[in-house]
Amino acid sequence: MNAIVKNTLLAGALSLLIAACGGSNAPPADSPRIAPAPSAMWRPALNDTWQWQLKEKINTSYPVAVYDIDLFDTPITTIQALQAAGKKVVCYFSAGSAENWRSDFASFQAADIGRALSEWEGENWLDTRSANVRKIMRTRLDLALSKGCNGVEPDNVDGYANPSGFSLSAATQLEYNRFLASEAHQRKLAVALKNDVRQLAELVGDFDFAVNEECHSYNECDAYQSFTLNGKPVFNAEYASSYATDVTARQTLCADARARNFHTLVLPLALNDGLRYSCEP
């Protein structure tokens, strides 16, 4: 008997023995099924364009490379439709605040929850040193993976610079933000650094791109050179009404954004697609 035939017969006998004993390589029928991590991690390119919409039904018609949408509220079918159209999907969630309308809000402990965020009803700062908070964030990243997101945008990652009600520091913020980046990368999810302007230079090596709000209005855009000079895109949103109503103001804004190699949008603060101006040429 040649070796090939012998090995084939042995393999068949082994399969019959496993079947007879009730063995199987398949998971139990009731076991949770999470989509496997992609074999290669996507990272946005410096010239990628974007759209940002977190509320209401997503307008999928914009000719951009990247969509940034809400992790919890966006159906998987919308994510899949965007990807079928050749777009990458970044999923937003708050990593530094508890929002009382989220489905996992009850998972936070009383000790995790601090002061209210100014002007954002139902939202409170979190103690990002908490092991329980980090467990919840890992679960949110698992949700992003299971829904097929290409990347994530963890928000409110600058609690140390705000009146959070906790003794957070620059050092604890750096450690927490690096935790988020590492956990995202373990799942092969690209990760954005949201605002946290003071720590851009220290965190550029950990994050794949930046999402900024109103650096033009607050004169903070210079700090983002640390990202663009390293080939990492900056997705910027401006909310000032003058940019929407004054063509000259918008032209000045866009000229500055293009000079910086930013991808700047003029959007409503509600991020509901109520208006949109793009500085892309």
Written overview of the protein:
This protein has 281 residues and is α/β, with parallel strands linked by helices. The protein contains eight helices and twelve strands. The strands form two sheets. It has a nine-stranded mixed beta sheet with strand order 1-2-3-7-8-9-10-11-12. Helix 6 links the parallel strand 9 and strand 10. The chain is globular.
Short synopsis of the structure:
With 281 residues, the protein is an alpha/beta fold. The chain is built from 8 helices and 12 strands. Residues 1-35 have low confidence and may be disordered.
Main attributes of the structure:
281 residues, alpha/beta, TIM Barrel, nine-stranded mixed β-sheet, three-stranded antiparallel β-sheet, 12 strands
Mean pLDDT: 90
How many β-strands, per DSSP?
12
What is the CATH topology descriptor? TIM Barrel
Counting H and I runs of at least 4 residues, what is the number of helices? 8
Termini, distance in Å?
Answer: 72 Å
The CATH class, by name, is Alpha Beta
Which structural class best describes the helix and strand composition? alpha/beta
CATH architecture designation: Alpha-Beta Barrel
Q: Which range best describes the helical content: under 10%, 10-25%, 25-40%, 40-55%, 55-70% or over 70%? A: 25-40%
Q: What is the domain total for the residues? A: 1
The strand order across the widest sheet is: 1-2-3-7-8-9-10-11-12
Radius of gyration: 23 Å
Inertia-based shape: globular
In terms of DSSP E residues, the strand content is 15-25%
SSE string: HEEHEEEEHEHEHEHEHHEE
What composes the largest sheet? 9 strands, mixed
Q: Can you say what the CATH homologous superfamily is?
A: Aldolase class I
Low-confidence stretches: 1-35
